[in-house]
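Molecular record:
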Amino acid sequence: MSETAQGQEHYEARISEIRERVVGMYTKVPWPGTRETDEEMGWRLRCLGITPDDFTDKQVVEVGCGTGDYALWYATHGAGHVTGVDLSDGSLAKANQKVKDNSIENAKFVKQDVLKMDLPDNHFDYAFSVGVLHHTGDPFRGFQEMVRIAKPGGIVIVSLYNNYSRFLLNVRQRICRFLGGDDIHARVRWGKRLFPFSVRKLNKRYHGLNYEEILYDTYGFPHETLHTGNEILKWFDKTGIEYMGSFAPLRFQDYPYIFSLPEYKEFRKSFDGFPVMRAVGNGLSKMLGGKDKITDRKFKRPSALNTILCQLAWVPFGLRISCFTLAGRKVR
């Protein structure tokens, strides 16, 4: 066997091992148990430069759908049809139960590997992934798959753990991994014992509905990678994606506009458990509200320096802003 073939075999074995461990955990402890999606989507999409026209009556796909809350939000807010892709049987069971309970006819969930989807090229108008690719063995490969199945002119949105804002939480996670080793249940017990305050804060953000799920998603996960804004912008350049917006913004110049948006009033409910963030956000909203003409703004691509400085500003709020999101349009 050639050296190249051996390297590929080792790579695929590593990917397979990570997949098995991650899927195993999320099958036993699906994430999230429940989510108040309405309170966050309006402001998030405005910050990304997304308008309802981008998904209304369109073919939408969620790559790594988990229990289906985001996919079903689009299905009930104008999308023509929504496909959710995941490998976790436990998560898919919850997603399908929600479809049944709410009699939703324009959504389906399929069991597939997000790194190698059995979906056609250039098919979907709108492809998105929220907090999933960093749990695979090759996030960029997963992103390339998203771009492959998106139509030219279609939207691609990816949300990943941030290397800056996740810094303080990552220190806690490393302590739990050191103490608990490969036993994810032991890691969770250490997280619950050593850092109860942070878990309670996160559970308040989900209005007290996801305590056990949060423990496993925060301290028990088998694998994750951390990413930066400039790294994802390079992904965009490599795959022909034109930048549209980010959440949180990666340009300081965009903050006055986003805090003047009326959608922020609903989003601030998600700051339960984070009173300092709520106070800062409310103060900015009150100060800036009505001072900027509310339109659907096209955001400029952030410079490398602005991107770094904004991410540094996220560090004190990393428990709440551990994921960041970039949106773009496929131009080739």
Q: What stands out?
A: The mean pLDDT is 91. Residues 260 and 289 are 4 Å apart (CA to CA). The chain has one domain: 38-164+224-330. DSSP finds 14 helices and seven strands in the chain.
